[in-house]
Amino acid sequence: MKFSDVQLFGYASFEETEIIRLGQGINFFVGQNNTGKSALLQSFRPSLQQSPHRNVDSFRPEHLRPSIQDATIQFSGIELWRAWRKAGWELAWTLGGDREHYSRVVSDFFSQASWAAKIRRADGTNDLTNKPPPRGEGPTVVRFRATVDGPEFTGYDNTRDVELLDVINARWGEAVFFFDAQRSNVGRCQINMSAMLLPNASNLPAVLMRMQGDRGDLFRTLVQHMRDIFPTVRNLSISSESGSSDLEILVWPVVEQQYRELATSLNASGTGLSQVLAILTVAMTMEDAVIVIDEISSFLHPAAAKALVRILESHYGGHQYMISTHSPEVLSACRPSTIHLVTKTDFTSAVVPINVENVGQLRVLTNELGVSMTDVFASDRIIWVEGPTEELAFPYIFEETRDDSSAERHQRTPQFTAVIATGDFTAKRTRPDLIFAIYDRLSNAASVLSGAATFAFDAEGLNEGQMTDLTRRAKDRLLFLPRRMFECYLLHPAAIAAVMNASLDDAPVSVEAVEAFLSAESGAAKYKAVKEWKGDLQEEKWLAKVDAANMLSDLFDSLSGARLTFSKRVHSFGILKEILATDRAHLDGLIHFVKQLVALSRS
Predict the structure, then answer these.
(1) What pLDDT shows up at residue 361?
(2) Phi and psi dihedrals of 347, rounded to 5?
(3) If residue 551 lies in a helix (H) or strand (E), which one and from where to where?
(4) Angle at Cα 565 formed by Cα 561 and Cα 569, nearest 5°?
(5) What is the pLDDT of residue 375?
(6) Which contiguous run of DSSP H or E holds residue 559?
(7) 266, 251 in Cβ contact below 8 A?
(8) How many whole angstroms separate alpha carbon 2 and alpha carbon 172?
(9) Running DSSP on this structure, what letter comes out for residue 59?
C-alpha cells in the first residue's frame, strides 16, 4: 500500500489544498508549530475525523461544509487478496457477460502488480470512484468467496453487503500505523494476543516474545538498532512473572541479563523508547506498511531522531513514511522522497512542495524553520566527511558490516556529518589550522561527551606533501580515502546495471554493456588515470587514480541514451547498497577504511 497523492477540502485549517504528491520512502512535512502538520497527518488514519474548516466568513456549525479527502492509493493485487482472505467475506462484484469468465476477471484483478484506487472520504462515508468496469454486456451483481485455488463463484445477489471498497478499507486499517507524541503504554499486554502487530501497537510484548523465540536474528538486529539510537539502552527482554498471564518488555542498561532488578519496565522508561521500539517493530515485521510519525523531534533527542530516520531509510526503505517535524536536523539524515512546507496565515493553512535542488526554495524552508544551515546536534562521536554521499554511506557501511561476534556489537554508530566546504581546508586564502579548530570546537559544543573532531577526506587534487601537512594540522585525526574518491569503489558492472535498470522503464542496460563501456573508456585522458590503465578493471593503481564520478556520469548518459542523469547522492548510494548485498568482497578496502575511521574517532 502506498499513497500517491492526497487532497483536502474543508478539513481543519485547510480550506482547500493543492494535490499533495507523495513518494515511496520518506515524506517530510515541515513547518512551525500550529500550522496544521498534525491535522494533515491525522487525515491518513483509516477513519477521517470530521473537522470542518472555519474562518471569519464561515464559522457557524450549520454553515460549515463537511471535510473531504481525495486520495490515490497504490495497491498490489496480492495484498488486497490477502486482506480479503483474512476477512473471510463473500464479495459482491458487478460483472457482465457469461458466467464462464466471472472468476477469471476477478482473478486477473487480484493478480495485478499494481492498481491505483481513487477514494473520496467525506462525512462518514467512503466512495471508490474508479470501480473496475463490468467488462461485458448485461452486468449483474455476482458473489465470490476467496479460496486457496482463487475466487470461487457462489451465486447472484443484489444486496451488496461487502464490496471491493470494504477490502480496501480493511487493508488500510491493518497497513497504516500512526505514532504521535503522546506516551504510549505498550510495554505490557496479555500473553495470548495476536502475533501480528496491531495498528496501535498494544500487543507489542506478544509480538516481540514470538520474534525472540522464532526469529532470534531479527530480534538481535532490533536490539542493535535500539543501541544505535539510545546510548542508555544495551539490551531488551520480554518477561512474564510467575502466575501472571501478562507479558512485559524490560529495558536493560547493561548487555548482561543477570538480575531482573537491574532492568526497567518499558512503560516506566522515556516516551521515546516505546515509540521507537514500536516503529522499528512495524518496519521490521510488516510488509508495505504506511508509517505515520507526528512531530518526531518532540519525543526524540535530535541525535536519536537522525539515527532512527537513517535506519528506516537504509534498512527498511520498502515502506512509506509520513513524518512531520519543525526541526531542521532530521532532514539531513536521509534522502527524502518529498518535502512539503506547511504554512498558516490567519485561519488558513497551505501545503507547498519544496524542491530540494532549488536553492531559493531551500532558503524559504530554512528561514521558516529559523535556521541558516542544518546544524550538527548532540552525538557521542562526530566524524566530518567529504560530502552528503559519504554522510549517508559511511554509517550504512558500518552498520551493515558490524561484527556481532566481537566488541563491535557494543559500539554505537558515530555521527557522520558533511563539512560545509572541503576547499576551506586547502585554500590559500584561509588558515587551515583555524578551520580545523572551528570544526573541533563545533564537535565539542555539540556534546560535552564528544571527543576531538575526526575527519575523512578524498585525496583528489592533493599531493603527498599537502596530505601530510593537513594530517598534521588536524592533529593526526584525519584519514584520506585510499582512492581518489568514493565512486572509485563503485565501478562494479552488475551493480551499476541493476541501479540504472531500476530507474529505466524500458530498454534495460546489460552488464556486458557496462563492462564494454568501462573497458573502452577507462584509458581516456579526461578520467585522469591514463598511465595506470593496463586494461584491467580490478587494477588497484588505476582504481586509486581514476576520476570515477565523471566516468559514471558519462556512462549513465551514454548507455541510457541521455534518459538517466547520474546523481552522486542518489545513484552512488544505490550502487553501494547493491554491491554490499551481492558482492561484499568488492568493498573490502572501503569497509576497512570506515572501520579505521570509527576506531580513530573513539581513540
Answers:
(1) 52
(2) -100, -5
(3) helix 548-559
(4) 155
(5) 35
(6) helix 548-559
(7) yes
(8) 10
(9) -
pLDDT for 377: 31
74 close to 22: Cβ distance less than 8 angstroms: no
Amino acid at 89: W
pLDDT at 403: 77
Helix residue ranges per DSSP H, 355-413 = 359-369, 388-400
Q: Is the Cβ–Cβ distance between 451 and 592 less than 8 Å? A: no
pLDDT attached to residue 431: 44
Which amino acid would we find at residue 52? P
Sole residue written with cell 530480534: 219
Instruction: Indicate the average pLDDT of the chain.
Output: 85
Nearest to 399, CA basis, from 477, 335, 310: 310
Question: What predicted TM-score, i.e. pTM, was given to this entire model?
Answer: 0.70
Q: Pairing relation of β-strands 415-418 and 382-385?
A: parallel
d(CA 33, CA 521): 54
Q: Are 509 and 500 in contact (CB under 8 A)?
A: yes
Separation of alpha carbons 436 and 256, rounded Å: 40
Look-up: residue for cell 505498550?
186
Q: What are the grid coordinates assigned to 156, written together?
A: 447472484
CA atoms within 13 A on the CB side of 8: 27
All cell numbers assigned to 543 = 582504481
Can you tell me the distance from the alpha carbon of 53 to that of 16, in angstroms, rounded to the nearest whole number?
Answer: 9
Q: Which three cell numbers stand for residue 572?
A: 552512488
Residue that the C-alpha cell 496479555 belongs to: 190
**pLDDT confidence tier of residue 410, bands split at 50, 70 and 90:** low
368-371: long-range contacts (C-beta < 8 A, 24 or more apart)?
368/30, 368/31, 368/32, 368/341, 368/343, 369/30, 369/32, 369/326, 369/327, 369/328, 370/32, 371/328
- CA atoms in the 13 A half-sphere facing the CB of 217: 1
pLDDT of residue 408: 59
Query: For the segment 507-531, what is each residue's pLDDT rounded down to a tens digit?
Result: 889 999 999 999 999 999 999 999 9
Nearest-angstrom CA–CA distance, 306 and 418: 14
Q: Are the C-beta atoms of residues 17 and 350 closer than 8 Å to each other?
A: yes
Check: CB of residue 121 under 8 Å from CB of residue 82.
no
The pLDDT, as a whole number, for residue 414 is: 80
The pLDDT assigned to 103 comes to 87
